[in-house]
């Protein structure tokens, strides 16, 4: 592997900025790769973002068939640099690049600074989670048919769970029907927010449906099944936008299933095991999103500080950096980003030490906290740019729009908050007893010293008058 980059004299390389708490868990190989990721993103991917946007084209006819050449250029370059499939954690998968969740998490931060870097190194959602599904639960034949192409970055995939007609943050509501007929499953219903479904290279849909609606256990009514994108009866009707951004060429599809037939063996893991599949899929993915969001927040802070020092812009006779409120906003941003990073890295270390289930609490905390931090920092950066901040002249408006979706994607904040709150509240009875225990012990001490319990702020007006 060649290391073609010279380090900039002014900034420490990424490997030297790893928080000290995480350092013992990061191998020398991962540190070297991290530095290469940083340089690749900074020097090749970020400048290519604009080229990518231009190569997608302008018309509807162009944008949904586009495959910008700059992306293939970057993918080739990434492979030369040894940057490929770093997301598959080494303790659970043999197919990846041999890094831990923590090590990849550190790299994902840099990938989050560019719109195309993740795909350039074959680490972009939803393919990452989908590849994990294949690697973890797929049969040999399912892996042979789909996993190879995904690992090579030749095809893309989509995960279809959310539906337009039900509250999908509660997956027991999923209503796409799956009926068995002979050797086939027959699917009917509709899905939306199927990210990646607009891409011409998207060949396989991983679909959650209701296969056993009468099952008394509501968590065993669903199954996850593979549906090739070109199966008759599948129609991608339209794309849904994010604050007006179409996200072409990947997009977010609104898709209908009309008597779609797939073989019985397309089921993943087994009938009625849909919940297991979606839960297994999401843990590490949430950490990846969180680390990319931290990268976006760092980028926003860089933009903010740059704007504050732009000599052409001096409101009220001073540069922004000389207005105290701006420095205070920079400081707040730095504190928030550093705290959020520690939280995500802690969750990643916990996943590495066992599995995602072991880190459920920490993953949920990061899922809620990090997007808030990223949005807050991006918002401050937008403010520093004035009108330019909300325009197409900086990447900030787009970053804000996509950052905002992180509070909804993979389950809205409230669902995670509810779970965190419930778990915390399980201590309620024990805490009540503990506090009563303090009082009891205080009473014992008081009687030991012959004291009566009293409140020194108790007012006794009559006594005060007598003394006067
Ligand atoms: C950019 C983007 C990409 C996406 N990509 C995909 C994808 O690839 N595949 C896919 O299947 N889905 C995808 N989604 C969908 C996403 O996962 C869902 O939108 C999300 O799970 C919420 O489901 P819903 O939209 O049906 O909202 P609902 O379930 O209807 O919830 C609406 C609101 O109700 C509130 N709420 C929900 N539960 C509670 C609660 N327990 N307590 C209090 N309030 C609550 C929340 O404020 C929530 O936002 C994507 C969404 C976006 C925006």
TrEMBL record:
Cofactor needs: FAD
| GO MF annotation, one | acyl-CoA dehydrogenase activity
GO cellular component term, pick one: cytoplasm
Keyword Oxidoreductase found: yes
> Which organism is the protein's source?
Dissoconium aciculare CBS 342.82
The protein in question is named Acyl-CoA dehydrogenase NM domain-like protein
Q: The Acyl-CoA dehydrogenase/oxidase C-terminal domain covers which part of the protein?
A: 272-423
Q: Does the keyword Flavoprotein apply?
A: yes
Which classification does the entry list for the species? Eukaryota, Fungi, Dikarya, Ascomycota, Pezizomycotina
Top-level taxon in the UniProt lineage? Eukaryota
Sorted alphabetically, which InterPro entries does this protein's record hold?
Acyl-CoA_dehydrogenase, Acyl-CoA_Oxase/DH_mid-dom, Acyl-CoA_Oxase/DH_mid-dom_sf, AcylCo_DH-like_C, AcylCo_DH/oxidase_C, AcylCoA_DH/ox_N, AcylCoA_DH/ox_N_sf, AcylCoA_DH/oxidase_NM_dom_sf
Name the SUPFAM superfamilies for this protein: Acyl-CoA dehydrogenase C-terminal domain-like, Acyl-CoA dehydrogenase NM domain-like
Q: Where is the Acyl-CoA oxidase/dehydrogenase middle domain?
A: 158-260
Q: Which family does it belong to?
A: Belongs to the acyl-CoA dehydrogenase family.
Tell me which Gene3D superfamilies the record gives: Acyl-CoA dehydrogenase/oxidase, N-terminal domain, Butyryl-CoA Dehydrogenase, subunit A, domain 2, Butyryl-CoA Dehydrogenase, subunit A, domain 3
**GO BP terms:** fatty acid beta-oxidation using acyl-CoA dehydrogenase
User: Where is the Acyl-CoA dehydrogenase/oxidase N-terminal domain positioned along the sequence?
Assistant: 29-154
């Amino acid at each position: 592997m060649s290391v073609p980059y010279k380090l900039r004299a002014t900034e420490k390389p990424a490997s030297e900025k790893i928080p000290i708490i995480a350092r013992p868990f990061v191998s020398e190989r991962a540190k070297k790769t991290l530095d290469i990721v940083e340089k690749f993103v900074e020097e090749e991917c970020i400048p290519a973002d604009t080229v990518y946007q231009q190569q997608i084209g302008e018309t509807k006819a162009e944008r949904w068939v586009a495959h910008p050449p700059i992306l293939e250029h970057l993918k080739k370059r990434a492979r030369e640099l040894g940057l490929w499939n770093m997301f598959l954690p080494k303790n659970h998968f043999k197919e990846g690049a041999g890094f831990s969740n923590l090590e990849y998490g550190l790299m994902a931060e840099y990938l989050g600074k560019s719109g195309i870097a993740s795909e350039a190194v074959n680490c972009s959602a939803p393919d990452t989670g989908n590849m994990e599904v294949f690697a973890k639960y797929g049969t040999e034949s399912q892996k042979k048919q789909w996993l190879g192409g995904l690992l090579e970055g030749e095809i893309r995939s989509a995960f279809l769970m959310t539906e337009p007609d039900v509250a999908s943050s509660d997956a027991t509501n999923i209503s796409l029907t799956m009926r068995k007929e002979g050797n086939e499953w027959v699917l009917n219903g509709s899905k939306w927010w199927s990210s990646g479904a607009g891409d011409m290279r998207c060949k396989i849909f991983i679909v959650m449906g209701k296969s056993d609606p009468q099952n008394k256990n509501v968590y065993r009514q669903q199954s996850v099944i593979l549906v090739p994108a070109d199966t008759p009866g599948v129609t991608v009707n339209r794309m849904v936008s994010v604050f007006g951004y179409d996200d072409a060429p990947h997009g977010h599809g609104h898709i209908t299933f009309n008597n779609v037939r797939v073989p019985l063996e397309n089921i993943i893991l087994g009938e009625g095991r849909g919940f297991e599949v979606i839960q297994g899929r999401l843990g590490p993915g949430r950490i990846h999103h969180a680390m990319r969001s931290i990268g976006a927040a760092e980028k926003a802070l860089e933009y903010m500080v740059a704007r504050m020092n732009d000599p052409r812009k001096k409101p009220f006779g001073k540069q922004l950096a000389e207005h105290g409120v701006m420095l205070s906003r920079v400081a707040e941003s730095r504190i928030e980003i550093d705290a959020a990073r520690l939280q995500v890295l802690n969750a990643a270390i916990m996943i590495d030490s066992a599995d995602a289930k072991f880190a459920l609490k920490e993953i949920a905390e990061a899922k809620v906290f990090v997007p808030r931090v990223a949005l807050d920092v991006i918002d401050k950066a937008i403010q520093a740019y004035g009108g330019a901040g909300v325009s197409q002249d900086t990447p900030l408006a787009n970053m804000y729009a996509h950052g905002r979706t992180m509070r909804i994607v993979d389950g809205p904040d409230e669902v995670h908050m509810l779970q965190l709150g419930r778990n915390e509240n399980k201590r309620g009875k024990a805490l009540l007893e503990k506090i009563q225990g303090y009082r009891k012990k205080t009473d014992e001490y008081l009687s030991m010293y012959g004291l009566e319990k009293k409140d020194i702020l108790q007012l006794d007006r009559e006594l005060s008058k007598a003394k006067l």
